[in-house]
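User: Structure tokens for this complex, please. No commentary.
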Amino acid sequence: MFVAGMNHRTAPVELREQLALEEEKIREILADLAGRGLLEEIMILSTCNRVEVYGVAAVPGEARSLAFGRLASQRGLAWRDLEPLVYTVTGEEAALHAFRVAASLDSMVLGEPQILGQVKDAFALAQSVGTAGPVLHALMSQAFGAAKRVRSETEVGRLAVSISYAAVELARKIFEGLEGRSVLLVGAGEMSELAARHLVDQGALPVYVANRAWSRAQELARSLGGTPVPFDQMDATLALVDIVITSTAARAPIVTTAAVRAALQARRGRPLFLIDIAVPRNVDPAVNDLENAFCYDIDDLRSVVESNLKERQREAVRAQGLLEQEVVKFMARLQQLEVVPTIVSLREKLEAIRRAELDRALARLPGSGEETRRVMEALSQSIVNKVLHAPMVKLKDSSRAGHGRRWTEVISELFGLRAPGRSGPPE
Amino acid sequence: MNAVLFDVALTAYILAAAAAIGSFAGRREQLGWVALLLTQAGFVCHTAAVILRGMELRRLPFMTMAEVISLVIWAVILVDLWVERRHRIGPLSAFVLPVVLALGLGLPTGLRSIALEPPVPTGWVVVHVTLVLVGLAALVVNFGGALMYLLQERQLKARRPGKIYYRLPPLETLDRLTVATLTVGFPFLTVGLALGVFSARAAWGSVMTFDPLALLSLLMWVIYAAILVGRVMGRWRGRRAAYFSIAGFCVMLVTLGAGVFLHGRHGS
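Assistant:
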């Protein structure tokens, strides 16, 4: 079992985008590669930030060269140009890598939610082409479970790492919930509109929109499901809302301390949250000194995002520990899958032979007592165990390294065992 | 026997307090569960201890100051458990339990010394003590809430999220907690203290007597009354109310301390 690929860390985007392929092409390549006989199982994950090949092969190095060679030739590139950028891991490390990717620990933005869906799609594609077998199935299903655990048991994906989400997160720290919280949006701009939209999505209403241009105010209000407000009534509206987002091109503050103080008094001390995305700032910084008013400018929001990123990194360490546990579980499962049925068959077969021969031998020794029987029993048992020792160890070790299947097939053939169950991993 | 059970309960509370603080400061959720379990276990032992004490001494078990404080602690734990379950304010224990311990430190000895002359509990005194107890318990939790509020507010005002930012509930929740505990605790306290005055007149003859406990209680009551009035008038939300809650609580501590250590009419 191996994973080979390149991601945003090892290869520049120009190269990655060349290897990003549409579904149809991937389907073709998968089928082609599977037909060449080097790979038992194969799956290709292709996103804007990584191109990876997950596979099961007897000789991972060759398989990898083949796979990437094929991918490269699609776009007229040569394998040896790609080779230095491609990382390869096998066995246990491969499992850990797969889990990390699915849990978004390897992503450009730690904890991002899209990668899991992308991995699921890649796996589904491989399944539909028929190139995903029991090992990949076990690996992927465990990866999805592990990713879910990471999402629910750690904070890796939870803290806001964009300015607009950070603003929403802060609002949640001030107000108990966002339903029914009123919002005033002054001005326009991508970030402020996005923040307002997030708030609305979480139940904030009513929404007031103020803009120097009345038509713009109407337009924005319409798209947010709110009410336009004449610009000169902005101060009065401050008293009606819980959250204010400002983002105008004004050169001097348009929200004054006096206006906020009046609003706070009218609100009888209920907190007021001001998000000032504009540079130069729209809200007088002295506003933050007023009791019950919380004013965050763009630098403050950025430092929240930075702090959150650090938290995510800390959580990622915890998540790693969790994933390592999952890898241990997976390796055990792999062993189960590949090797245990064969070990059992082998033992059974040899035991059957031993019994039969023992009985025959004893039958030829009439009058043999308990002592003889015991000695013969011990002798036959010991021969069988010693003969089996080396094959058993080999089977277990190879399973741990991820290519147990090959050996189980060899041993099954050599010893004439029934083929171990190929019907899929134990669920 | 009851004193032993109480010691067990107190030990459980100490461990729970450590776990709660650890869970809060270190952000380990499992410790939070441990703290909760320990608190509940301690509470069960404590309840048993109180009941047993009543049975062993053949009287209502809240006649001496030590017993009263023990019951205040019991009521505080009850309120804390209830608030944590109902309103999901996890870190509350981390703030309330240490307070409980501060209150309870002198108790094991206090409970072992049985008053030689147990004062005869007349009906109204019993009610007085019970009501004051409930009021105080709510106000101890009020203190916990006020502390958390101030911490969270400072974090949010500083605009640079420190470690605590992530762990405390939203500001409004904390404010609601302080209001709720005040609104519940204050009437109990008022009626309870009033009954106390009434019983004092009946038992000691005059209301104007120099009993440190009574006088301090009055001061405490005034502070909480001021907070309520301030809130109702809409001028004392948030930070100021929280500061006064803390002041009120400090007076409460002094009051209870006076009750235990000084010898006024309340005798222990």
